[in-house]
């Protein structure tokens, strides 16, 4: 957990919506008006909380994330994913998977990853942050100091707090809580007394003695609006109300972490098994053109890939003095 963020990296990719072999389901919110049962709450939500391990350069850091939907999207903080490092998602039962990089909203410290939906046991049921009150009880689930997924309890200490995260990053209406948030809790869910998601743990105030009871979370309503744009209309899987579920079409992610190269987009890392890896993309490559037009930057590339035609799009990669153009089809019919 940290309040100052230095990374300026952003991710250029589209969501990969995968089929699943066994149906996952949302953790259920408890009925309103009942006394909260911390044991039942933790047992219901913990399977949807994951540990995110970031390694590289001889160092290893640990953060938290949680499953957002049945498509296998994992939400966490942007500073947790440590751009350029190798990421591992560890489920509550000990299984590990390598995620694909999807997208980030760096200015809000929000990131979304993709795991195989077949591996996703559940996702966190969402509440809303519009009716929150100062003084109401909350719970936080995360992996403090990497010792294991843990539960802490507190109250909402304040609402609509403007929080400066450094490097131009800011949350205008953060939730303030005194629930224990420590290094490793970043990206974990903040829950109301019913076990419904109301926010994502993001930052703490650094106290001189090393202890702080002032933590901040991104409100769930802001998460929903932001993720709708990051995942995109084609990447979202609507929950069917008849309870039967549906198998989405298969999508292949481009799967690169990139930065603006002025002009073009420089590849910083390539997700193992991603579409970009299959195309032979490597860190240091610069994507100069999408179709017949130059690429202005990451935002431009992401928008154009999102609105590609049915025949896909040609991308031109520059590696040193050599360039090559490849056909990229990010969507295909699936059952």
Automatic annotation (TrEMBL):
A Gene Ontology molecular function term of the record: peptidase activity
PANTHER family: PEPTIDASE S12 (PTHR43343), PROTEASE DO-LIKE 8, CHLOROPLASTIC (PTHR43343:SF3)
Protein name: Serine protease
Occurrences of domain PDZ (ranges): 252-321
Keyword tags: Hydrolase, Protease, Signal
Signal peptide: 1-26
Domain of life, source organism: Bacteria
Annotated source species: Skermanella cutis
Biological process per Gene Ontology, one example term: proteolysis
InterPro entries hit by this protein: Chloro_Bact_Ser_Proteases, PDZ, PDZ_sf, Peptidase_S1_PA, Peptidase_S1C
